[in-house]
Batch of 2 targets.
Target 1
Amino acid sequence: MLTLRLLNRGVSWVGGIVKRPLPPNVADNRAIVTAFGRKGLFAYSSGSPASSNELMWLSAFATEEPPSRDSITIKEIAADVRKRYGAWGDPVVRDIVSTAPIETVYPIWVLPDLPHWGQDGIVLVGDAAHAMSPTTAQGACQALEDAQALALLLCETLRKAYDSGEKLDKGADIWPQKERDAVELSIRLLFTIRSPRVSGIAEAGRQLDRKRRNLTRFKEYAMYLFLWLMFRLSSLGK
Ligand SMILES: Cc1cc2nc3c(=O)[nH]c(=O)nc-3n(C[C@H](O)[C@H](O)[C@H](O)COP(=O)(O)OP(=O)(O)OC[C@H]3O[C@@H](n4cnc5c(N)ncnc54)[C@H](O)[C@@H]3O)c2cc1C
């Protein structure tokens, strides 16, 4: 049996959609604008076709304890978000936090590395198998990779089972043992192939979260310098 114990990352997020004209870099370049600061991360992009003028936004920030309705009210969360980002340089961020309705806050929970991802015909993929910090920006990507890997494995193992020469009664009520074995093998191989990659990405996310938690001013400027250098060097290479 698999026991799942969710871990709190000490990070929460708020977000939603605001109805407003899209900033030119979002409308023209389909950009996702992401800003990192000492007290959190803020991102916005188009939430639907540019013509509908909907800006999707989210902000993630450190919260030592997972916020709950007993410990903090939505009003307090909204006031905190406005205080946190109300003086940021980007006028779009200031506009969003001053007008966006904030209805809830989501603590971020992740899974520890699991010993396997399924058995007896049941398989976990995506967040069910490896919910990771959104800092990685990889959760949905890894879910898609799982789906593709599992489809390829099932295709191959089942094809081998059907090609084995032994007649399989596909119409029978009882699940033929050969098919059952092929599915079990696929589930085991999925874990063997995918789990090292996924746990490496999850660990990178844990490290980033630790580093980004309420940065000191010195670390904040070191991060800006690093990001500036990174973009500068990559544009020099073009
Ligand atoms: C703030 C934030 C930012 C993120 N940014 C990125 C990013 O930039 N890039 C990226 O790749 N990933 C990102 N992610 C992660 C990404 O959203 C998830 O990893 C991804 O959605 C996981 O997909 P999933 O299909 O495994 O699970 P989910 O998207 O959670 O889908 C599970 C579905 O099952 C439904 N469900 C649950 N229980 C039942 C039930 N009993 N019966 C029927 N249905 C049920 C749920 O309603 C849900 O629709 C981010 C996550 C967060 C929170």
Note: Residues 118-210 form one domain.
Target 2
Amino acid sequence: MSLPVFALNLDKLSDDDIQMIKRMIPKLQLLIKAKEADSTIPTLTFDELYAPLDSNEQKFIKQFQKIKGKKAGIKIPWRGMSESVKLLVAIRDQRVQEKVKVTENGVTREEIKERTLPKQFLPLPVYQKYNEMMEAMEKDIGRRLLVDSGYRSSAFQLYLFVYYLQNHGYSIRETVKFVTLPGYSEHGDPKHQAIDFINKEGINGDPNVKEFEVLPENQWLLENARRFGFILSYPKNNLRGITYEPWHWRYDPKAAEKETKKRRKGKSRRSVPGMTPSQDKKHESLH
Ligand SMILES: [Zn+2]
């Protein structure tokens, strides 16, 4: 007798499962709002996430931690679950000056508004390398990039995944194309920590990927980031089934060195423009 491997239907959740999620989300959102208010959301733990749920809901949500990524169509490697990471540095008071449209008496004009980014976290060694890299960028082109998204715990990733299921017909297989399952995100892998960058004018590729792509800061990264151990995880037409994310770089000195050697030998596999249409909207891209 073979037992079903998954209780969850990966193509589409059952009606009972969908009802369960609809009951859970409002409870979880209260918690998320509170964590957002004190800027500790990226370090959310599983215990904190489960606390507002009853025992059935806890059993249900825990199933998502056991989904085999490959079976759900995930082509990126398993990174491991993470919570309570040692030596996380909090990055506070990052400010961007953004262009916003203001309409007054029927007339729309653009205004520059300052916004402080929510607190972000990076493992200390990655934070140090990031700073070193930004000093070099500033020296070269007089610009710096800020951290739009750094460390994200696996529990927070799990919340995001469950939350975004509603946007994709409650299909796990569809949702993984936009939000990865806990344990697969480079944002939750302190050893290969990913950073999503934003520039000082608030440009982060959302909603327009091209806007980030054409930045001089981005050009500088493409030429120099490898020297500091950072590598572009999801270039155009990557083979990992992930849409192009020019803002998402991971700290991975070994991979960066390999890439440098490959390029020196002229064997770099360049992306072929126009092979697949690149995503032109960031929308929700939480890998
Ligand atoms: Zn990212």
Note: The first helix runs from residue 15 to 37.
